[in-house]
Amino acid sequence: MLQIELRYENATLASYETENEQVSIGRNPKNDIQIDNMAVSSFHAVVKKVMNAYFIEDLNSTNGTFVNEKKIDKYELLDGDRIIIGKHQLHFRFGAKASQPAQFDETMVLDTKRQKELLEKNR
């Protein structure tokens, strides 16, 4: 059972529990996990189960996807990994519940000190 906890700063916004083989993440309401933030692309990333492993793949998002502060294109997730999308964190683990509505418009490009630090660190 896959559990993903969506956080912003120190607050938990939602928890998701699924046995699906694929979980989409983005601002568009068609995603399994919707993040209502202009820094998040409409279809930002996807988590896929392959055999007994989970992988996250960035879908050519504007601001990138980070796992444990490292920018990734595709990455095998481990229990406890922290995914950063925009200003939100998703904590990956095994079992939770909920979802929340979202709206979408054009992706806002982040220009924050933290985003620049992460990008510089990964060059």
TrEMBL record:
Pfam families: FHA. InterPro entries: Cell_Proc_Reg/RNA_Proc, FHA_dom, SMAD_FHA_dom_sf. Coiled coil: none annotated. Residues 23-72 form the FHA domain. It comes from the Bacteria. CDD domains: FHA. Signal peptide: none annotated. This is FHA domain-containing protein. The lineage of its organism: Bacteria, Pseudomonadati, Thermodesulfobacteriota, Desulfuromonadia, Desulfuromonadales.
